[in-house]
């Protein structure tokens, strides 16, 4: 929980192109503090809203205003469903986000599905697909309605892709639906435990009920968007609630078919970094293909004395994460041949 000694001295403003904000796992609930399942980490359900307010104040005050904020999922806690406060709590958090002067892109995590069905989410303010950019004459880059994913271009030559890591999941879908049956089959094939949230004894511990995965349809779409970005020499940032790179994450927290997502990403040269939430502890690794995997520290497990959010500044040759509180600063260089000429 140690805060950084010397944040903010990473680089100068001279060649900065644009910036964006990142925040993960707010998990707000109007409840007393609690603990995670293992009882090892305190969860500050009420204070998470204060953390969000602080983050928004900082982003609004930044000298170069971020173009947008990426909310990496789990915006309210699953406990809200138990106390029948889901809609009320979502309203409280969304009203807080209204203070932000720039658009926010909302990702969906497991806690969204503890509180709401997929149909409800699709109709809710958490569906920010209206912020997508469509590529004229390239219909293969338009996502289908079967999953919640889209892409947008906040700055020329930089494409952001928001992925649906619960596209394959038993959460939020009608138990009588074929999709539920298909996903339950996948889960049970990999997890023989009676308690499907338990990874005990699993060779692939990510196959638990609180995770999910990417359908082949979504991966095919991702492949098309990345092919377009390669052809047009774009840089790509990908966002998902679930992480996909084992060395940057707790193995239990990975997307079910993280290898399939990696295979698509690694078959293209355009992806610079992959942001995820879910783990709460944070993590980072640059993979062998030069993709930077950042797991953001979760707001919910951040003590009131600290903070957990960041601003990413984009330069022609790198992205620089300026973390606040327990989010560390990171310099994420593009591979040499990938540096942009501006
Ligand atoms: N090892 C485990 N065994 C059984 N159930 C678990 C285990 N870990 C988590 N769970 C359950 O899975 C659900 C999600 O876990 P939780 O840690 O709260 O997720 P998140 O980190 O997304 O908040 C909770 O209902 C929790 O009780």
TrEMBL record:
Coiled coil (residue ranges): none
Catalysed reactions, semicolon-separated: CDP-choline + H2O = phosphocholine + CMP + 2 H(+); ADP-D-ribose + H2O = D-ribose 5-phosphate + AMP + 2 H(+); CDP-glycerol + H2O = sn-glycerol 3-phosphate + CMP + 2 H(+)
Entry keyword annotation includes Electron transport: no
A GO MF label: CDP-glycerol diphosphatase activity
Signal sequence, renumbered to the chain: none
Entry cofactors: Mg(2+)
EC number of the protein: 3.6.1.13, 3.6.1.16, 3.6.1.53
InterPro entries xrefs: Calcineurin-like_PHP (IPR004843), Metallo-depent_PP-like (IPR029052), MPP_ADPRM (IPR041869)
Enzyme class: hydrolase
Highest taxon, organism lineage: Eukaryota
Record bears the keyword Repeat: no
Entry similarity comment: Belongs to the ADPRibase-Mn family.
Assembly notes: Monomer.
Function: Hydrolyzes ADP-ribose, IDP-ribose, CDP-glycerol, CDP-choline and CDP-ethanolamine, but not other non-reducing ADP-sugars or CDP-glucose. May be involved in immune cell signaling as suggested by the second-messenger role of ADP-ribose, which activates TRPM2 as a mediator of oxidative/nitrosative stress.
Protein name stated in the entry: Manganese-dependent ADP-ribose/CDP-alcohol diphosphatase
Gene this chain is encoded by: ADPRM
